[in-house]
What does this fold into?
Amino acid sequence: FFFLILIGIQIITMAPVGMMQNAVVPRDSFFPNTPTINYVQDNLLPGQSVLATSTYLISGTLNYYDISDWFAHGYHRPSEKAILDQVVHDAWKSPTSAMYNLDQINLDSAYIDKLGIRYVLTSEQVPDTMNTTKWQIMSLEEGIIVLENLDCPPGAYLLSSSDYINPSSYDDIKITKFTPYSRDFFVNATHQGKLVTTTRIWPGWVAYCNDQPVSIEPYMGMMQSIDVPEGESVIQYTYVPFTFYCGLAISIFALILLLFIPRKFLGS
It folds into this structure.
C-alpha cells in the first residue's frame, strides 16, 4: 500500500517537475525587446525583411522577434545564394549560416528592393558616401543605427516588361490578408505584367487571380510571380502541401486497419 502511495505521488508530481526542467523557455528571457526592435516590428510590412549585421551575431537572430531575414540560418539553393551574394559579398561563414559587417553590404544593389529589404541594422559607422535619397539614417538607442530603405516595396510589386520596378506603383497594391498559409492582394495594374511577392517560392503554394487558377513562376529563382492583367484584380495565395494530405490519408488508412483487422483475427 505504501509503495502504491509513492507511485501515485510520483505520477502527480512528475508532470510539473518535467515541465519545469524541459518546457519551452519564453523567448523574452533571451531576446528582450529594445527601442530598435520595437520600431522595426511596428513598421515592417508583411513580406518586408531586414539585414542584420554582426551586431546581432549570426544572421537570423531577429527571426526570434518575427522579423524576416533572407540570410537567416538555413539551406539556400545555389540560385538563391547567387542573388544574395549580390547584396552582401562574402557573407557565408558556413554552408547554412551568414555573418557580415556593414561594409560588406552593397547598399546600391537593385536586389535590395527586389527582395523587399527595408531596414539595415548595425552598430558601425555609416559611410559618408551613402545615398541619402534612398536611405534614411536614424538611431533609437545608443550604439545601434537603423538604415531605412525609402524605396522598399510593400511586400509585393509589379514588374514591367523591362524588369523595372516603379516605386509609384506601390500604391496600386494592397495586402488584404497575410498569414503563413494564406495571402490575399488587391491589385490595380496600369498595364499587364507580373506581380512578384517577396515570398520564397516553395512547393505547395497555389494562386488564383479573380477566382481563376494561375501558374506560379519563379522570379530570380527564389520568389513567387504570377501574370496579372491590366486593371483591378484580386490575387489569392494558399499553401496546400501535397505531403500533408498524403500523410493524412495514410494515417486515416492505418487507423482503419487498426480498428478492423484485430476484430477479424479475434473473430468478434
Remarks:
- The first helix runs from residue 2 to 22.
- The CA atoms of residues 66 and 217 lie 27 Å apart.
- The chain has a mean pLDDT of 89.
